[in-house]
Design goal:
alpha+beta, four-stranded antiparallel beta sheet, 6 strands, elongated
């Protein structure tokens, strides 16, 4: 990991972090293995599903998005420690792209730094800090994100009626107006959740 710090006005700093390609590739490989063990992919023993099957079921960017989140959440703190900075708040991330296999990953963030104070005496110094309180919406967002991240899927009986919170394993054959297959949508097995907006409300009602 490489870091670069740019001092800004108002006790702020811009930190740019570069994660080398080998580290990115290692994280991607590990995440594919974790997903293969975590989820049940029809036709494959747990932990044995290949990458194309995982991409098809969870989405082509699911692994990359997960790795990106992990990199951002861990690397910014490591970069701050490596540079010996003293932040007084969390980072303000600049717009980022998803990681790509075989390429280094670069991201930047801005942090507020503890101001340097020169005391004119040894008298006691008091500082009143505002109390930071999370809103109910922020708490709900975090709980929902954790619930989604740690979700596991189990097969239900064929007689089970699909509910909005359930997922269905669909075999999809899609064609255009001329009858040609649409490869991007056609799939032998794809997890689908009603109400996600991926397909129409009429389709959700039918299943």
């Amino acid at each position: 990991m490489e870091t670069n710090v740019e001092s800004l006005e108002g006790n702020k700093a811009k930190v740019t972090v570069t994660i080398d390609a080998a580290d990115v590739d290692g994280r991607i490989t590990k995440t594919y293995k974790d997903f293969a063990r975590k989820y049940n992919f029809p036709g494959f023993r747990r932990g044995k599903a290949p990458r194309p099957v995982i991409d098809n079921a969870l989405g082509a960017e699911a692994v990359r998005a997960t790795v990106t989140d992990e990199v951002l959440n861990s690397a910014w703190a490591a970069a701050v420690d490596a540079e010996g900075l003293s932040p007084v708040s969390g980072p303000a991330m600049e717009e980022t792209e998803l990681v790509e296999a075989g390429k280094p990953y670069v991201f930047s963030f801005t942090i507020d730094l503890r101001p340097e104070v020169e005391l004119s005496s040894y008298d006691a110094v008091e500082i009143e800090l505002p109390f930071a309180e999370a809103t109910e919406a922020e708490i709900d967002d975090q709980v929902s994100a954790m619930a989604e991240h740690y979700t596991t899927f189990e097969d239900a009986s064929a007689a089970t009626k699909l509910k909005p919170e359930n997922y269905a394993d669909l075999a999809i054959k899609a064609t255009d107006a001329e009858g040609n297959d649409i490869a991007a949508i056609t799939s032998e097995s794809r997890l689908y959740g009603p109400g996600t907006g991926m397909l129409s409300e009429a389709f959700d009602a039918e299943i």
